[in-house]
Write a structure and sequence with these properties.
The protein is α/β, with parallel strands linked by helices and 349 residues long. The protein is built from 11 helices and 20 strands. Strand 19, helix 11 and strand 20 form a beta-alpha-beta unit.
Length: 349
């Protein structure tokens, strides 16, 4: 097989194939990118294994990947913010810029959002890719393109902590120590949280969270949410003011509500079942706010500054590295739950 623009394509549920496709040309306001690194997200694996996430169904072959960085290789007409050779982090969602959500600064809620590797929009797990120039962020010299790719999950942490109001002195509970739970640990600490406790069923992930700055770790040993909420208070010494739920597991969401201090806030980040039972009266009478988040909005510049300044170190998140040619092995590794973040190198050496 020739390799001009080797690309990882989800042909159908359960079938990832590598194909050489034409190199895309940038249109007005776009840049062509020589892709450098793409991290594998749980959503990529879910589309591979299940063919859908909620209403987003893979109905035609789709290029995977959205946690990405690249080097500008060609400019489209009218692009002035970048030049050929710039290394960039790619914010994967491009909104319409015209609707009321966009105009009010909440473009993540744009109904016409074009988001990489969300059907029917193609992703960027390829040698070359084209993207809107204004959603590409130039990396400073002291940042690697691996770190650039990790700005995507880090931005989820930035948005979650913003929605929860994490600030100096906050006492925070994070449920779930996967990649998103870990970036919330990093962000909460960077925002000045005084205490961060994190829960998970996997001790090795809790150990990773501890090494990345968590004050306390708590292994989940019971599906009784009230029992786990009490254990959280016992470990922290107080009830958390803010809980960021990253697992999507029903008992964990219930624990998040019971554990949170009256007048506090629960941020729902992890997505599980579409319909679940919640202790809604408990939340209501104690004025515990429940907030959702959808991806992130205006968070890439903050995430970039956090890493560039040295305030946050995302490098330990990467536990496995693969070449683009070994994409299937990379996906299998992620599916097996091995390590934390699997990174694919896209450029030919």
């Amino acid at each position: 097989m020739s390799d001009t623009n080797l690309t990882a394509i989800l042909k159908k549920q359960g079938d990832i194939q590598l194909e050489d496709i034409p190199i895309p040309e940038p249109g007005p306001g776009e840049v062509q990118l020589c892709m450098q690194h793409v991290g594998i997200c749980g959503s990529d694996v879910h589309y591979w294994k299940h063919g859908a996430i909620g209403d987003f169904v893979v109905k035609a072959p789709m290029i995977l990947g959205h946690e990405a960085s690249g080097v500008v290789s060609k400019l489209g007409k009218g692009v002035t913010n970048l030049k050929v050779g710039d290394r960039v982090a790619i914010e994967p969602g491009v909104p319409c810029r015209l609707c009321s959500h966009c105009k009010h600064g909440r473009y993540n809620l744009c109904p016409d959002m074009k988001f990489c590797a969300t059907p029917p929009i193609h992703g960027n797990l390829a040698r070359y890719y084209v993207h809107a120039a204004d959603f590409c962020f130039k990396l400073p010299d002291n940042m690697s393109t691996e770190e650039g790719a990790l700005l995507e999950p880090l931005s989820v942490g930035v948005h979650a902590c913003n929605r929860g109001g994490v600030t100096l002195g906050s006492k925070v509970l994070i449920c779930g120590a996967g990649p998103i739970g870990l970036v919330n640990v990093l962000t909460a600490k960077a925002n000045g949280a005084a205490v961060v406790c994190i829960t998970d069923i996997d001790q090795s992930r809790l150990d990773m969270a501890k090494s990345m700055g968590a004050t306390y770790t708590l292994k989940v040993t019971s599906k009784d949410p009230k029992e786990m909420a009490q254990k959280v208070e016992d470990v922290m010494g107080v009830q958390p003011e803010i809980t960021i739920e990253c697992s999507g597991a029903t008992p964990s969401i219930q624990t998040a509500i019971y554990a949170t201090k009256s007048g506090g806030c629960v941020v729902l980040v992890g997505l599980g079942q579409a319909d679940i039972t919640l202790p809604i009266v408990n939340a209501s009478v104690r004025e515990v706010d429940i907030r959702g988040i959808f991806r992130y909005v205006n968070c890439y510049p903050t995430a970039l500054a956090m890493v560039a300044s040295g305030k946050v170190d995302v490098k330990p998140l990467i536990t496995h590295r693969f070449k683009l040619e070994d994409t299937l092995k990379a996906f299998e590794t992620t599916f097996k739950g091995e390590g934390i973040k699997v990174m694919i190198e896209c450029a030919k050496k």
